[in-house]
Amino acid sequence: MSITAYPYLLSPLDLGFTTLKNRVIMGSMHTGLEDRFYHYGKLAAFYRERARGGVGLIVTGGISPNRQGWLLPFGGTLNFAGDVPNHRRVTRAVHEEGGKILLQILHAGRYGYQPLVVSASNLKSPISPFKPKALDESGIEKTIAAYVRCARLARRAGYDGVEVMGSEGYLLNQFLCARTNRRTDRWGGPIENRMRLAVEIVRRIRAAVGPDFIIMFRHSVLDLVEGGNTWDEIVHTAQALEEAGATILNTGYGWHEARIPTIVTSVPRAAFASIAARLKQAVRIPVVASNRINMPDDAERLLAEGQADLMSMARPFLADPDWVNKAQAGQADRINTCIACNQACLDHTFANRRASCLVNPRACHETELVYRPTSRQRRIAVVGAGPAGLSAATVAAQRGHAVTLFDAQDRIGGQFNTAMRIPGKEEFAETIRYFGRQLALLGVDLRLGARVTREELLAGGYDDVIVATGVTMRRPRIEGIDHPKVLTYLDVLRGGAPVGANVAIVGAGGIGFDTAEFLMHAAAPLQTQPRPQPVDAWMAEWGVDPHVATPGGLAPPHPVTPARRIWLLQRKTTRPGAGLGKTTGWVHRATLQRHGVTMLAGVQYERIDDAGLHMTVGGERRVLDVDNVVICAGQESLAELMPPEGARGGPAFHKIGGAALAAELDAKRAIREGAELAARL
Ligand code: FAD
Ligand code: NAP
Ligand code: SF4
Q1: For a disulfide at 276, which of 77, 187, 289, 378, Cβ 3.0-4.6 Å?
Q2: Ligand 2 nearest-atom number relative to CA 665
Q3: Model confidence over 335-375: pLDDT tens digits?
Q4: Which superfamily does 486-521+560-633 belong to?
Q5: Catalytic residue among 111, 147, 170, 489
Q6: How would you classify residue 600: left for phi > 0, otherwise alpha for psi between -120 and 50, otherwise beta?
Q7: Dihedral (C-alpha) 244, 247, 248, 252: value to the nearest 10 degrees?
Q8: Which of the four pLDDT bands, split at 50, 70 and 90, describes residue 539?
Q9: Please, are residues 472 and 638 in contact by the beta-carbon 8 Å criterion?
Q10: Whether residue 583 has its Cβ less than 6 Å from ligand 3
Q11: What pLDDT does 3 receive?
Q12: Domains 3-349 and 379-473+636-680 share a fold
């Protein structure tokens, strides 16, 4: 073993016919670039950066073996020889950088958002409007043949193997579980029959491709839906897959239709590793741990404890393509950590947009957003060390500009310092740590506690001034807004203001939801770094049985007793939380509902006085007898440093992030605008 901080993580794995250079797998992610042939150059550039960054084994986004298996109409397929040259561009790029890559074969089954969908039985899924046709015997045979053809073509295209997607509720999972498999023929009924399709596919691919080609099977070890499999069924299937010729067993957790989250930021790190560890006891081939593993220390610990043989991380490689090289160099503190927000990756994928990353806007835009060294150094002042200013300052400095970064606060991070205090959002502190380290490494002149004025900026001799001063809170015009029981979210989240047992929150946007979550829990003292929820407490709260003794591993949920009675209010008549992230909003809504938070839409605020909050809802007047009213009514831009319209001379002024536009502001936009501007200067 080499001398490194991560001897297990970085040790090679001999598979008999080939060796993986380390234990790190970049898990499959649909980027949105794999569906059109003209995007394969960009896709190759995306994978090339990750291979160069040291990843041992990359898995592509899901590629369908036939048209019935498409996730979306005209999705990526590999079923004709004519598709091979596109895929060769990808495999060549990865191999040139010393990496290995598997093609993921994904048949969506009833999750397909298209009319050709098929499944084990004709049961519609709750997440697609299309009712599937149950495959008949000949349809099943054709499907197996399509998988085999796809694997053969993958070999011809230069892939080192394939991953057969058998989890997350896709076609093979639909055959594997009684929930979706109501067949009475040899493909349904007892597990022996339900697993036949998955096992047969692996057996026939192995026969077709020979012994020296990786076949990884992503096995659902925790379905998290009613009618899911039990542990005995899962192990029985795993052993049959091994027998059929699988090289590696990857693990999958939760169907897409499950109502228990498995990858959002509030899921504790490595929450499901113990389940992979139990599978490892039951088979001889290597087992992969997956989900919410994002930093080398956790990955190393899991390997050292023998919980798995390999670590699969997907989104962490959107956030930082150099993750492995940084770990290898003992520079984990330089890793740009995936904070599991889903805002630029999965939320984009589900909206049929190209994926990217909130903390790394270059992800999937490697050929478009390029940080070239500058040929003429400029003196740049960045005002505001929130996400927008941090992004601009670091990209500008990386390109060779001389950057001074000011912030009025005594710390960098802007609103992320508040976001990270919300229970379940502790990961946001990693982004501040990353940027802090980058500022030091890049020699940015950081001036904290410095509220600068326009005069100081004009006198500073800068070529450019980037105004990234963010936002100020909106104070709604409600009678009694100055009543002592009225607080703002900053009073509560940053000021540590005491809040009574009954509280109304005005405004049900992202911050209103976060404030409700914060108030459900007894607030931690401001000086202490909020701690993530322990895995067993999280599992108990959501109702996860880590022993998978029950079908799907479902247990009765045990919500924690809320610290307060909370009303979350908005004026719009739409469902509260409708504007939250597509893949995360339901988690926030479910959490608040389970903890008794009352969400009201269509509220008209009348006044606030000693009696509480007077309001009209649905034409009815009500008084909420609350101890406090917390205002979360959005923000307005703070850009007073910008010169007046028509001013001449002096540095060029630019606005980014909240300072440019408060409406629909989020950190994704703030960081992207900072990077894009700095890439142009
Ligand atoms: P800010 O973060 O507001 O930073 C502006 C900085 O400028 C501040 O540090 C301020 O001190 C400094 N400044 C202002 N004036 C001056 C001056 N004259 N001189 C020097 N310095 C000055 N976004 C998401 O995308 N996802 C989330 O999950 C999320 N959760 C959130 C949860 C909470 C509780 C909060 C409060 C926000 C959350 N946000 C989230 C929003 C996100 O933090 C903001 O969109 C983002 O911080 C905006 O970045 P910014 O750099 O434009 O502004
Ligand atoms: P927001 O999402 O715009 O919500 C503001 C809320 O205030 C809305 O519910 C709005 O609803 C209400 N409101 C607006 N004007 C009002 C007025 N004059 N009087 C009373 N109520 C008023 O803003 P935010 O919650 O402050 O969040 C700021 C940004 O941070 C958002 O853009 C968000 O994307 C981001 N953020 C994201 C997350 C996340 O999980 N992704 C979490 C936190 C924050 P009505 O007009 O219907 O009353
Ligand atoms: Fe991770 Fe968020 Fe980036 Fe997705 S967008 S890769 S979840 S940091």
Answers
A1: 289
A2: 32
A3: 999 999 999 999 999 899 999 999 999 999 999 999 999 99
A4: FAD/NAD(P)-binding domain (3.50.50.60)
A5: 170
A6: beta
A7: -40
A8: very high
A9: yes
A10: no
A11: 67
A12: no
Q: Residues 379, 384, 385, CA angle at the centre, nearest 5°?
A: 95
Residue with the two structure tokens 């054709």: 142
Which ligand is the nearest neighbour of the Cα of 601? Answer: 2
Report the C-alpha gap between 249 and 157 in whole angstroms.
23
Distance 398 CA to ligand 1 centre (A): 22
Q: Is 276 left (phi over 0), alpha (psi -120 to 50) or beta?
A: alpha
Residue of 348, 359, 474 with the most ligand 2 atoms within 8 Å of its CB, for mutation: 474
Contacts of 566 (CB under 8 A, 6+ apart): 503, 504, 505, 516, 519, 520, 592, 596, 597, 598
Burial, 69: exposed, middle or buried (Cβ in 10 Å; 0-12, 13-18, 19+)? buried
The number of beta carbons lying within 10 Å of the beta carbon of residue 573 is 9
Distance of CA 582 from the midpoint of ligand 3 (Å): 14
Q: Give bridge partners of residue 467 from the DSSP assignment.
A: 383, 655
Q: Which two tokens stand for residue 342?
A: 């889903």
- CATH class as words, domain 3-349: alpha beta
Residue 356 CA: nearest ligand 3 atom is 5
> Atom 18 (ligand 1): residue with closest C-alpha?
451
Domain ranges across the chain: 3-349, 379-473+636-680, 486-521+560-633
Instruction: Read off the tokens for 56.
Output: 């041992």
pTM of the model as a whole = 0.97
**Number of the ligand 1 atom closest to the C-alpha atom of 265:** 28
Q: Is the pLDDT of residue 575 over 70?
A: yes
Cα separation, 191 vs 185, whole angstroms:
12
Distance CA 655, CA 281 (A): 56
Range scoring the smallest mean pLDDT among 33-47, 370-384, 514-528, 651-665: 514-528
Q: How far apart are CA 568 and CA 550, in angstroms?
A: 35
Location of structure tokens 């940053």? 494
Phi, psi at 654, each rounded to 5°:
-130, 150
Q: Using 50, 70 and 90 to split pLDDT, how confident is the model at 645?
A: confident
Closest CA to 219 of 284, 290, 267: 290
Distance CA 347, CA 340 (A): 11
Dihedral-angle region of residue 415 (phi above 0 means left; psi in -120 to 50 means alpha; beta otherwise): alpha
379-473+636-680 has CATH 3.40.190.10 classification: no
CA 631 to centroid of ligand 2, rounded, Å: 10
Give yes or no: 170 in active site.
yes
**Rounded Cα gap, residues 579 and 657, in angstroms:** 19
